[in-house]
Design brief:
alpha+beta; 20 strands
Length: about 450
């Protein structure tokens, strides 16, 4: 019997993978260990082995496709074998075993009913033509079919809504909320498994925005860039983001960095200002547990352990590896782990589970001379700290020689989810962090 190769699950948090390239073509002979394709997530790149000896009967997705995990991607068997029958049998068997595979029965050419936003509340005439159960389902899914209902007098009933949903791509919660607000859902979506996303709803409402008649280069958003784009948009749509900016004296911070750099210990000499800030954050956060938290639906979960996400710029895009239990690590250990994770991200060898589970994230643009910025939340986290550049700032001259003197200050930009954290509590955390950075030698001192 033919072997149906499915998209493997690369870590507990990975929902889909992009087929970067196929290493085989239909008709090729492979063995179980042959690497048939390279797939990538927003986290890393992996080779996928065939899993069985035989001939490549069918490649089910072209290179560049974003395929949900546990979905079929190829069929391997003997020459002349009916690959479609094998795929159908394999799908039914996987359903019976509960692997969560789904079959997409809608073809590209199949028509779909015209789907419109749910009726706005307060429209009495429209409401009277919809049964209560149909109205409830329509409100939940954010749609109503633009056609007469099958109930008495053309009344729209529950089965009309169900029929429309059966022919429509699934929608994310954010997309449904936008649909209820009055935008028409597009025929298909760009999200995971063809889901209609909030971005799809917005772009459908905007129509074509490009009217400039000029030469240019078009680059399709795909792969990791597409996944990052979706994650950033979802972050802004699903949270109320608010940013505070502050600064701390960097006199002692820079002096400590000079001392460490001159140290004969190779590990200590490579400790950076970024490492010192990561260490300081790990020590300040436990006193402000509301900042070390997740918002999951209507639940706020605070954590005892500090698991620091650190933004890393790579050729493949932004990655956020996690320093586990940072609050229990020494400065030397945090510096070593930060360098290890950054190197793994840049080489593509980072493990998926090393890129999930952070409770608070830090993004550093200080080396680019950025004075302040608005870091985007790494949802479901409720806060993220941006590290900015060090600039000279006028301060009162306590020596009395002149009215003021210039002193280096490091900037911080703190973005919070205002659904969870108010401005004053966030400001208290930021003030405490700035004080801990200004007095860095005291922060490093043993209890």
């Amino acid at each position: 019997m033919a072997h149906v190769l499915i998209m493997p699950r690369q870590g507990n948090t990975v929902e889909s993978c992009v087929i970067q390239e196929w290493k085989v073509k239909e008709g090729d002979t492979v063995n179980a260990g042959t690497s048939v394709c390279v797939v990538e997530t927003d986290k890393a790149t992996f080779d996928v082995p065939a899993g069985a000896d035989g001939t490549i009967l069918k490649l089910l997705h072209p290179g560049g496709d974003d395929v949900p995990v546990l979905q079929p991607i190829a069929v391997i068997g003997t020459p002349g074998e009916d690959w479609s029958a094998a795929l159908e049998t394999g799908f039914r068997e996987d359903q019976r075993k509960g692997t969560g595979m789904q079959k997409n029965t809608q073809t590209v050419d199949s028509p779909s009913p015209n789907i419109h936003a749910a009726m706005p509340p307060g429209d009495a005439n429209a409401a009277s033509a919809v049964s209560p159960r149909a109205r409830k389902l329509a409100a939940k899914e954010g749609i109503l079919p633009a056609m007469p209902g099958s109930g008495p007098g053309g009344r729209i009933i529950e089965q009309d809504i169900a029929a429309a949903l059966a022919n429509r791509s699934p929608m994310t919660a954010a997309a449904k909320a936008i649909a209820v607000a009055g935008l028409t859902a597009p025929r298909a979506g760009t999200g995971l498994g063809g889901r209609i996303t909030a971005a799809d709803m917005v772009f459908a409402g905007m129509g074509s925005a490009s009217t400039i008649q000029d030469k240019g280069t078009e680059t399709h958003i795909k792969g990791v860039r597409k996944l990052i784009a979706g994650r950033m948009l979802a972050s802004l749509l699903e949270s109320a983001q608010f940013t505070l900016n502050a600064g701390a004296s960097a006199v002692r911070l820079q002096e400590l960095r000079r001392i460490l750099k001159a140290n004969n210990d190779q590990e200590l000499s490579k400790i950076t200002i970024n490492d010192l800030i990561l260490y300081t954050v790990s020590r300040v956060l436990p006193s402000y547990p509301y900042m070390n938290a997740h918002k999951i639906g209507e639940v706020i979960k605070t954590y005892e352990g500090v698991h620091l996400g650190m933004a890393v710029d790579t050729d493949r895009g932004l990655m956020v590896p996690v320093i586990r239990n940072a609050g229990t690590l020494s400065l030397r250990q945090i510096a070593a782990e930060a360098k290890r994770l950054a190197a793994a991200c840049q080489s593509g060898s980072i493990m998926p589970d090393e890129l999930s589970g952070s409770t608070f994230s830090v993004s550093n643009l200080g080396s680019f001379g950025v004075a302040s910025f608005t870091p985007v939340l790494n949802i479901p986290e409720v806060a993220i700290l941006g590290i900015c550049g060090i600039k000279l700032k006028p301060v009162e001259d306590i020596s009395g020689e002149c009215a003021f003197a210039y002193e280096p200050h490091i900037g911080f930009s703190l973005t919070i989810n205002h659904q969870v954290v108010d401005g004053a509590p966030a400001a208290r955390f930021l003030k405490a962090l700035c004080q801990a950075v200004a007095d860095i030698e005291l922060t490093l001192a043993p209890d």
